[in-house]
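pasting for ref
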Amino acid sequence: MAAGDIGLRGLEGLNCTDLERFVGIEGYYTVSPGIGGIVKERPEDFIVWEVLDGGLDSRLMWELGPLPHEPSRYSLWILRKRNKDMLGSLAAISRAIGMRLRRVEICGIKDRRATTYQFIALPTEAVPQTTRTIVAGPVEARHVGYVNELKTEDLVENRFEVMVRHVSRDPQGLSRFREEVQSDGVPNYFGPQRFGSLRPITHLVGRHIVAGEFREAVETFLFLHTDFEPEPVKMARQLAAEQSSPDQLLSILPRSLVYERTVARHLAERRGDYLGALRRLPLRLRRLFVEAYSSYIFNRALSLSLKDGARLNEPLVGDLAVRLDMYQRPYGRVIPVDTWNIEEVARRVARGEAAISLPHVGYLVWLPRGPRGDALRAVLEEEGVTTSSFRIRAAPELSTRGSPRPILLRPRELQLSVQGEGLVRLSFSLPPSGYATSLLRELMKRRCGLAYAGVKHCYA
């Protein structure tokens, strides 16, 4: 099933084996046999924590406690959450101290079905100096110091400890897989959680926003459902979609759907104001919709380019290369690859100093030429958008400039070991923009997309 051919009831026919393709991911890059299995069956099976520039390790600091710092503009905290979404966790912390959500600074968004440790910054004056711990249900934050600000650029890497359970095939080839990944890397896809693991609709909402179709964006957000959602939620969305009156939505949508109810409440107060309803959502969430659509375009273009047998570490004339720092983070201007510099670019790519890139599309990006550029243009043409489409005049706060994204992901410090019958443990580090699922899908090679979301669903 393609993501472009759906109506409000279209996701009912989405099979578990369609989930990856629905968000633009197709095929495998490595040749090592898959081991099968399931990840995230338990939140403690997937642990991720942040490391900031200077070596500040969020998991280690959670255990060791605060560093000696003079008070500054922001107080630095470590947020630990277990099996809870990121925005909901931040909202819970904000409510606990009586502060607006938008005043919380973060480096990145972490998985829901996981145990995560990440840095957040709160305005120093918003929290009493004697407060050292904030608890809000399954979410807890501990004070560890002070900073002048907390920026996305401060995050140098995410570290992971992952347990794969119910491994169904002989895992004795782990060393071969490790060698293959360290040599050739894996495709740097945006993972399924970017789009919603059980209900992949964020890119669909974003598509409508980019097109200026705000009513369709709201209806997609409220009503579109899959067979993988909890039955009460699925039934509520179905029933809500059949209502013509916004007044009825609040009585139908369960209280667990906090953001959906926020949108419905605005529509009940101001009928037909769909853009206003979207603007009742946190800005981070609204931007995520548009960025998810750009991520979908990237995934499709990368999948299409790999079908021709192109290697991730072999530059082609017309490509755009980007310099990498020691943590594989891109920096500086893109480098157009031509006949004069292709050999030098290839050497830099081989040394890990540069990578071939495709744009995470926005209104200011350069488009590559050559085969990879052709793949991207084919996707853009099929979607009916251009780079300028991402300058959203009706909602300028959602416009996105875009950025180059390396097409190759090479984990650092990758370790794999058999832990017992049907158990394989991994530990590794990824750059801030990397998704662990990109590595895990190459290891497991499960056709059932739910296997990467902790759901024991089928044997595909």
